[in-house]
Amino acid sequence: MHKFLSTMPTASTSRQFHTKIRTIDRIGPHNSDVISVLVGCLLGDGHAYKSKAAVSGTSFRFAQSIRHKDYLFFLYEFFYSRGYCTEAGPREYRRTLINASNVKKTYYGYEFDVFTFSSLNWLYDMFYIDGRKIISPELINYLTPMALAFLIMDDGG
Asked: Which of 5, 37, 48, 145 is deepest in the core (most CB within 10 A)?
């Protein structure tokens, strides 16, 4: 188990724990369920990024098309109830992409971010090299049944 991983239960009061804390001081410990969901989602469509601030931390963005709105709102509630994101809720997005034939297609959906944690940099480093997502051999230590369930719910790919 990683040093920032905890199996302690989360209380409803944990929602306030992360909201008023600066990134440098937001270090966990992180519940094993939270780590499992992050790992499962990163194996799917989830995206992590490191802040460029002097004290870098890692945040995660979750986005789904409008067809999968219920799943994204379920993810949001999971993280919100544990104090990992604001009460603002997922935001709608519209992205227009142009393919090689110069044909535009617009996509609609919802997305949200979790707070930035310096204590989750190890998770970013396990999944990214030079900004490209990879599968690290160390990942085998974090493939829980819950992580696999979220991979399948996310997109299974």
From this structure: 37
